[in-house]
Amino acid sequence: MKSRWSDGEAREFSDRYGAAWGEALAMRVYTSRLIGADPDLVMHGGGNTSVKIVKRTLLGDDVEALCVKGSGWDLDSIEPPGFPALDLAYLRRLRKLEALSDEEMVNQLRTHLFDASAPNPSVETLLHAFLPHTFIDHTHADAILALTNQPDGAELIRKALGKDVVIVPYVMPGFRLAKLAAEMFEGMPAANGMVLLKHGLFTFASDARDSYQRTIEYVDRAETFLRKRARSQPAARAGGSGASAAAARMARVGPILRGLLAARGAGPDQPVRRVVLEHRATDDLLALIAAPECASLAARGPLTPDHVIRTKPRPLFVPDPALDDPEALRAQLAKAVDAYRAAYEAYFAEQVRGKGITRTKLDPDPRVFLIPGVGIVCAGKTRKDAAIAADISEHTLRIKDAAEGLGRYEPLDDSDLFDMEYWSLEQAKLGKETEKPLSRQVALVTGAAGAIGLGICAELARAGAHVVLTDVDAEALERARAKVAQISGASACAALRMDVTDETSVEAAFDQACRTFGGVDLVVANAGIAHVSALADTEARQFRQVMDVNLIGYFLTLRAAARVLRAQGTGGNVIVNASKNVFAPGADFGAYSASKAAGHQLGKVAAIELAPLGVRVNMINADAVFAEGDTPSGLWRDIGPDRARSRGLAPEKLQEFYRDRNLLRAEVTGAQVGRAVVFFASNQTPTTGATLPVDGGIAAAFPR
Length: 704
What we know:
- The chain has 704 residues and is an alpha/beta fold.
- The longest helix is centred in the middle third of the chain and has 30 residues, at 326-355.
- It is elongated, with a radius of gyration of 30 Å.
- The N and C termini lie far apart (72 Å).
């Protein structure tokens, strides 16, 4: 473990924050970010830091204040507002109490903030307050946990770290732990650190650098001790595959798992609560999962109780998966998930009965799968949630292995894990936000880099969907992805180059979507081209080219969509972006009009065939979209001048002509087409096989 401290960076933070927030808080921000940047120390909101300062009140009084990490902030990106300030003298008086409930503790913290709008202080605020030091750092360092999570954890910590650390037995975070830690420190007032067994490390000092350096020093001692004392482990089986083979298998496994984990609504119009998956499969992870001891390690709990809200008490290990037999694998995974749910139900019932309490049971589904030959697969309501569970699971697997090499990995028992999993203060970290109409869904859009495609993808992102943008133009595709990422966040969208006329390319893109998100729930067939000429003047080559993209491309997209949707078994939606020309074709536009009419008919056939799967297929007939924001339509850029001449117009008058010819005098946009897609995809009506015009009202194109 190496220190990341830099005098130059420290000066930068001092210059950036010192004048407005004070030098101490500026250094608190700097070293907190150093800690947060190292996943071997903390992960995803884990750990907390604090600094004690003197704060001047509105009345001009100088009072002691504790600035401690606030809920919702991560150490790797924290800013000064992420450290809510509290009345330190009052907090220290709370130590006189014999007991303090969690709810009252939160109330006392909030009512003694200096800023009522500040975030909730850490649940370990009182521990920071009861210790006398100016700077305090709390981490969940992997190497420390590998030592504490042993039958003789206290003895190992003493041997590894020396005699200048306080060792505190496991107590659930809160008032009781804060009092116990303070009392034990006062028995060793010269200590420079404190280890909470099966929880983490505290270091403290009078300045930020020393407290941070002590964290690094103790973790380095633990890592050195582990290396020297670890017994040699037998070589793990490779499992007959590497990372590339595991990725290929994930394309098949993902849709099956998503289907098994989906919660169906009570009726056909009730939403399906799906999950999004994250896959990890490096060669070393695959070797760990293939090792004989992995099943035993999987059955034992997390490194630190904080992880349980992300990963459940334990992962689901799938022994000897039938990776070469899809139907046998589906049956095997279904049986494993059912067994996991039954075990969780029993765990919940045993805990509430034994504790004599009432709790609302959380869903019993696994969050983490360990599958030999596939890797780690994690589930969450968003890809970000699934990735957090995957990050934790990767670290957990590696540290469990290291701990086992030292002795025997021994986590907290089920009773302690249950207390943390159902602790109201810990559950609050997950938030209770209202989900958007397409939350938990994965949408794949073809022709996503064009004006209509971008408008569709942006509206899907606004509705909460994870979006897979596909297009043949790689540069334009990346520009579109960047715009969608501004709405959805980078983790909730992906860009895949796909040629809709190439079977291999289409299948590969759907497979990659399954590897990235676990599957696909909504497919929008949108990619299209056009050609302008009278039938008598159209070459067969030109006609075939339009048909290849607009009809064969739709066919290949629908076929690949059906394969994935069938594997998931959770219904879904397919939207065919046809055209106003389906019902109202125009002269010199035969190839385009015929291809769109054929694609429209193909959508109707798909509606009939996919209905038994609960998949709805609907069509949108849009009129011309010339641009979406600063993204021009490639189709109209290419054919606009010819189309204007065909209509006897100057090119600059073409857009005005299309606007003025509809009943509402409306300019049709990609966003409007996107909102029509969202309407169908959100199952607001039990509709399939329908056509929705988005054209401002063109009487000749009314559906009939």
